[in-house]
Amino acid sequence: MKTPAASTRIASYSLAIDTSAGTTVAVLSMGTVIAEVNYLEPMTHSERIGSAIEKVLADSGIQANQIFTVVAGVGPGPFTGLRVGLAAARYFAIGAQAELVGVCSLDSIALDFYLENPGAGNLLVTTDARRKEVFWATYSGVVEGVPVRSHGPSVNKLEDIAELIDVSSHATTELGVRAGALGQIAFAQELAGVANRKDITPIYLREPDAVPSKGKKVSG
Amino acid sequence: MAIEIRQATVLDLPEIMNLETASFAKDAWPEETFKSELAAKHTYYILALEDNLVVGYAGLSKLPGSDQADIQTIAVREDKRGLGIGKKLMDTLTLQATELGAKEIFLEVRADNSIAQKLYKLFGFKQIGTRKKYYQPDGVDAFIMKTDMRLKTNKEPVVLGIETSCDETGVGIVRGNQVLANIISSSMDKHAIFGGVVPEIAARAHLEALTPVLDEALEKANLTLDDIDAIAVTNGPGLAGALMVGVGAAKALAVATGKPIYAVNHLVGHVGADILDRGELKTPTIALLVSGGHTSLLVVRDLLNDVELLGETIDDAAGEAFDKVARVLGLSYPGGPEIDRVAKDGNPNAIRFPRGLTLPKDMEKHRYDFSFSGLKTAVARHVELAESKGEEFSIADVAASFREAVVDVLIKKAVSACKEFDVPRLLLGGGVVANARLREVAKEQCEANGIELRIPPFSLCTDNGAMIAAIGAQLIMAGRAPSTLNFSAESTLPVTTVQS
Amino acid sequence: MHLLGVKVSKVLKAGDLAILIGPLGAGKTTFTRGVGEGLEVEGNVSSPTFVVARTHKRDGNAPFVHVDAYRLGSPAELDDLDIPFASSIVFVEWGKGLTNDISENWLEVEIARDTTGATEDRQVKITGFGARWAGVSF
Hints:
Largest interface: A-B, 42 and 46 residues
CATH class of chain C: Alpha Beta
Low-confidence stretches of chain B: none
Number of strands of chain C: 6
CATH superfamily of the largest domain in chain B: ATPase, nucleotide binding domain
Radius of gyration of chain B: 26 Å
Number of helices of chain C: 3
Helix content of chain C: 10-25%
Largest sheet of chain B: 7 strands, mixed
CATH topology of the largest domain in chain B: Nucleotidyltransferase, domain 5
Structural class of chain C: alpha/beta
Number of helices of chain B: 16
Number of strands of chain B: 17
Radius of gyration of chain C: 14 Å
Distance between the termini of chain B: 23 Å
Number of domains of chain C: 1
Distance between the termini of chain C: 14 Å
CATH class of the largest domain in chain B: Alpha Beta
Oligomer: heterotrimer
Largest sheet of chain C: 6 strands, mixed
CATH architecture of the largest domain in chain B: 2-Layer Sandwich
């Protein structure tokens, strides 16, 4: 692990990776996005992740070993795709000797919303969770660059959310997850001294629903 | 298809000219030119022969004292293309070039010959220039290509291999053919109550195990990532979600460290495991790979160029059959060791259960294929019948007879392949190799038929990262270019695709 | 059984879902092999009990996904596999009851075996559910 000397903090590069929806990767310098890609297709993560990381590094002009922090979007999201980005983040961090931090993927949508709508009130963020359900979280605003989450992340049928929160008082948005926003949040969290930023446990929200099944009869 | 490579002489000229004119039409060399090429002291021409007939040729030129060599020509008979002959010729030529002291190899290729260019790129050739309208009268450009042999003389590359195709996370490190570390983390116990591997559980376990397994492997080998020359990863076949974890991790590691990456076939990895045990793989060999997810019979003539699938299961894999029958008998998962335990006191000849696909009518379409579905059904029926009549039956006898049926058909077909293809070698691989009866019968039958039997140590037979690293090392030592970053995880990758 | 599968394959297209019902040894995999052959899929169509789902590419066409739900206990588990149903042709062995939320259209292939053990005869009943299968015959 690289030890931060005072001088290296001045040019602190980070790499943000998220595959909770599509495949999005970004390089940031001191919390400012200097290169980003955002592929929206939901099923090609393991094909794209390598070249996506390579591209943002090339576009930003920095070397892999200059990355000080890897920011991983920890979900929620469909499991299979989500894991690709998390696996990539873990191994990139080892290879580049970078620290690894985690940010809830839904938070990136909230940040972008509030950047576009400063002063806006409550926000309900939802993403597709299959099975006619959504992953969701609510936010009340942004404080020092970090979205303030009031509820979630959880997974429910869209109709059922109304029983848990006052939906009418929440704005909604069509925005999607963006690696650059995750990187910005991570940077802000570091400055604010947020405690559990190094928690990279994936937010699955559902257990693998495997149920021990009984044997099947042969005859009849 | 057994291809022999030997050096060409002037006596081979007529056959060569036939192929020359057929392959190159207007660009074909006149006979006199070819004759002097063959006779020259600074050239090296080889032939590819099948049943003593010329199916391809290639030539190299290297002046004494020079650092450079040139590939003069390469041709494969049209009906024999796409079978790895070109690769074999290139393998031999590039090896010869190195032995002659060449550090760089040059060649020219028609701009419109994308097939040849693809072959050259596989061997690390890159375009360095163009000769405009070089090929007349067509007016086609010539691409000048070059490869640097110094990259290839890395005699013993240190390769890190990553394996996540099923329920075992493996990271192994090799130096050439030698294992430096082989760390495996299995999620098997997590699947026990479900009676088999649950893809989602396996994939979650892979993500969690990735970092500790890598750390342990590096520590065991006493190396840092800087010491690694390349990364190899299984991209198929196997469970899609599980494969993706390894693929994503490996690609990121490659970019982070700037090391080249090789996407490797899992089944070919199992064959490569023998190299790690013995230092070499004697070819040709028949390989029988038996695990929970695979039951395949291969003929391996050349590990990297010529692996052919002779047959595989058309329904359940052998390991699966053990799991299902174990469940029918009320035993736990995994079924193999449980059936072994119970079968110890049983009579393997008590019940003659069916040996799938061994009838005369199967010999044509399914000669080397396997089928355990009928066997599994027969066992289940036997048990259900006894239970419905309220009769006692011996679990030990049923287990022993079932196991005998599986082992019988596996070894019979493997030995039959050895005889038919005149290959006196059999290699076993895959987790089911742990089954003592399988090994016992294999030894008996191989001895009786004059076949050399190879069974690598169990840690190399089960899914592991070292075998993947071994294939990576073999590819590097053969001068193969690394994979691009765009390969995908393929749950049904064919055995003919060694590297993606 | 194999030939019947080949025949059925001719009407299939992306988004189609079929479930196979029948006891062990009925011939569900054999039927599916026929479908795979008719669709000209890559790779060997064999029992995916172990891997649960196997995706077969088809040159330029919708991929064929062969699922064996033998070990799955709930529809949620099927979902965990992240199969792109809308853009694939999916066949699910032991699939009864597990696919209700996925589509309004599906085929049910029910194979019955002579359980007296007297003959090796099979009876196959194919039923289409949903507008997609209205008026389709083999």
